[in-house]
Design a protein that fits this description.
Blueprint lengths: L1 H19 L4 E8 L3 E8 L12 H11 L3 E5 L6 E8 L2
Antiparallel strand pairs: 1-2, 2-4, 3-4
Length: 90
């Protein structure tokens, strides 16, 4: 799980730098409900990120699913991006 969390954060921040034109980004890692870990990366960039084949976000989704987790992506155009993953602990 540790390597997946590391990958999620690195890939999400890479996307912020490459695509978002954001002035701020934040990372939050907290215990979630029912023995889960929730990792959230947000930015105040241009938004418009989407889950698509060949994208870094697709790679995040694949790794998260492999552990039985879930990915939530909210990225309205002009409204920043919020990428959250929920991973089971144990």
């Amino acid at each position: 799980m540790e390597s997946t969390v590391y990958f999620v954060v690195c890939e999400a921040l890479s996307n912020v730098v490459k695509h978002a034109a954001a002035s701020e980004a934040a990372i939050e890692v907290v215990p979630g409900p029912a023995e889960h870990l929730v990792v959230t990366v947000t930015d105040n960039g241009r938004g418009g990120a989407r889950l698509g084949a060949g994208s870094g976000i697709a790679g995040i989704a694949d790794r998260v699913r492999a552990l039985g987790g879930e990915l939530d992506l909210a990225s309205p155009a002009g409204g920043g991006t919020r990428l959250a993953v929920r991973l089971p602990c144990g």
